């Protein structure tokens, strides 16, 4: 018995599915299955799209996120080589993947598909170990929670002192005591946050915001006010990196969202969820993958039958 390497089998299955998508949709398709968006991803996309000028391109995207600058470069490549882009998200496209989604005139999602906050991932390197990544949103939200805690402490202390002293103390003295109380109880929390970490998180979040606004203005024709409002919401208004942004919420923000066709929904969800690694491949209508046979969709076959009947 011969064992087939599992990654190769999965890759072949996904390529077959991408080819089926080409036939069903009758559009060229770019498969972007990325376990991490990185500089190498940009080079592979550039290789697949080199010399191509595509009127209408489907992009099957599956990624947990990664390098924000690489995601922005991928957007530039997509917009250079395709006049119209339809981004198909079978399972998830988070963080840097969400940034790539902004470049699509149409977003196609299933019931379980999800995007995420536009929070840039910060690399953390430990000697002798591989790099890990943390969300820039974590530091920002930690500071926000401590600030809320301090304000709540101030309000509680002020009300408590007022209740216990009645009108026997001046308001300014009460507020001073409340501020001292809030400072003593919240100060230890502030001491746990390094200013450099907060500044770094704020800077990276601003990077994501700047790229997002630029994409919507430059490539999607949004006006600056609307683009800034929507991107600010995507960057700052969610509690965590894992938070799910679904098709209903994207529609409310003003994005053109469609359902993945039912014939493709389950196969795409299953295949994308199983795969990991860098799998970038362009499939043309006439030449999907290495096959030299023209694949025809249902409409083409129907037209041929109607033509024969007419003769």
Describe the structure.
This protein has 311 residues and is an alpha/beta fold. 55% of the residues lie in helices and 15% in strands. The strands form 3 sheets. It has a 6-stranded mixed beta sheet with strand order 9-5-3-2-1-10, sandwiched between helices. The protein has a two-stranded parallel sheet with strand order 4-6. It is elongated. The termini are far apart.
* Strand tally: 10
CATH architecture of the largest domain: Alpha-Beta Complex
Give the helix level as a range of percent: 40-55%
H/E series, N to C? HEHEHEEHEEEEHHHHHEHEH
The total domain count is 2
Quaternary state reads single chain
What is the distance, rounded to the nearest whole angstrom, between the alpha carbons of the first and last residues?
53 Å
Strand order within the widest sheet? 9-5-3-2-1-10
Averaged pLDDT, please? 79
Q: CATH class of the largest domain, please?
A: Alpha Beta
Protein name: Peptidase S49 domain-containing protein
InterPro entries: ClpP/crotonase-like_dom_sf, Pept_S49_ser-pept_pro
């Amino acid at each position: 018995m011969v064992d087939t390497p599992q990654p190769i089998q999965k890759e072949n299955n996904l390529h077959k599915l991408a080819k089926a998508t080409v036939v069903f949709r009758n559009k060229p398709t770019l498969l972007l299955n990325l376990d991490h968006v990185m500089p190498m991803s940009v080079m592979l996309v550039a290789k697949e799209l080199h010399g191509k000028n595509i009127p209408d391109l489907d992009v099957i995207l599956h990624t947990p996120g990664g390098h924000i600058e690489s995601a922005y470069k991928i957007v530039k490549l997509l917009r250079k080589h395709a006049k119209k882009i339809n981004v198909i998200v079978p399972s998830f496209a988070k963080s840097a993947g969400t940034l790539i989604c902004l470049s699509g005139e149409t977003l196609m999602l299933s019931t379980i598909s999800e995007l995420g906050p536009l929070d840039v991932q910060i690399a953390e390197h430990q000697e002798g170990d591989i790099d890990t990544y943390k969300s820039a949103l974590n530091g920002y939200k930690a500071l926000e929670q401590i600030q809320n805690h301090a304000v709540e402490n101030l309000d509680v202390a002020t009300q408590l002192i007022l209740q216990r002293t009645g009108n026997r103390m001046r308001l300014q003295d009460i507020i001073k005591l409340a501020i001292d109380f809030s400072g003593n109880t919240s100060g230890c929390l502030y001491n746990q946050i390094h200013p450099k970490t907060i500044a770094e998180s704020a800077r990276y979040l601003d990077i994501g915001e700047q790229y997002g606004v630029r994409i919507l203005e430059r490539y999607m024709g949004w006006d600056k006010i609307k683009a800034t409002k929507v991107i600010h919401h995507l960057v700052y208004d969610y509690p965590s990196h894992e938070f799910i942004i679904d098709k209903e919420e994207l529609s409310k923000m003003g994005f053109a969202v469609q359902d993945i066709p039912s014939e493709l929904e389950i196969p795409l969800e299953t295949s994308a969820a199983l795969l990991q690694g860098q799998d970038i491949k362009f499939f043309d209508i006439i030449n999907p993958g290495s096959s030299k046979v023209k694949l025809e969709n249902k409409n083409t076959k129907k037209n041929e039958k109607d033509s024969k009947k007419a003769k």
